[in-house]
Specification:
Layout: E1 5-7, H1 9-16, H2 21-33, E2 38-40, H3 41-53, H4 59-72, E3 74-76, H5 80-93, H6 97-108, E4 113-115, E5 124-125, E6 129-132
Parallel strand pairs: 1-4, 2-3, 4-6
Antiparallel strand pairs: 5-6
Helix pairs in contact: 1-2, 1-3, 5-6
């Protein structure tokens, strides 16, 4: 069985970053080797915000980046039910709310792997979603 993969915002940020070459290569490799990853509208919003604030890109370039992302990734939305699920995940696993919202959205879309740099590497949520930090060297 092939894992259904969800990407956290930081993976996409490294795809556009020139500051950390190694992480850029790892993030781009994920997009090239995993057939069809999923992200949420939350990830799109967070990516847009970082591209404006940190990367200081003009609106035109950000629009093009979002269209590029839309062309290669499955973008899903979430509902109030998802947000309530996120609150429960936050409490149960002691995570940040926005991380929990990413997790709840991944679970609702039947993803089995979540790639993220800033969540708990190796943590399995609800016995079905494993968080993997692709930037940690595995021994």
């Amino acid at each position: 069985m092939v894992d259904k993969v969800f990407l956290d915002t930081n993976i996409l940020i490294y795809c556009y970053s020139q500051d950390e070459v190694q992480k850029n290569m790892i993030a781009l490799n994920l997009l090239e080797t995993i057939p069809f990853c999923t992200i949420s509208t939350q990830v799109i919003n967070e990516l847009s915000n970082i591209l404006f604030k940190k990367f200081k890109l003009p609106a035109y370039d950000i629009e093009n980046a979002l269209l590029e992302v839309d062309n290669i990734l499955n973008i899903v939305t979430f509902s109030l039910t998802t947000q309530i699920k996120a609150i429960r995940i936050k409490e149960k696993y002691k995570l940040q709310y926005y991380d929990s919202l990413i997790i709840a959205t991944a679970l609702e879309n039947e993803c089995t792997v979540l790639y993220s740099e800033d969540m708990h590497d190796g943590l399995v949520i609800e016995n079905s979603l494993k968080i993997i930090n692709p930037f940690i060297e595995k021994m």
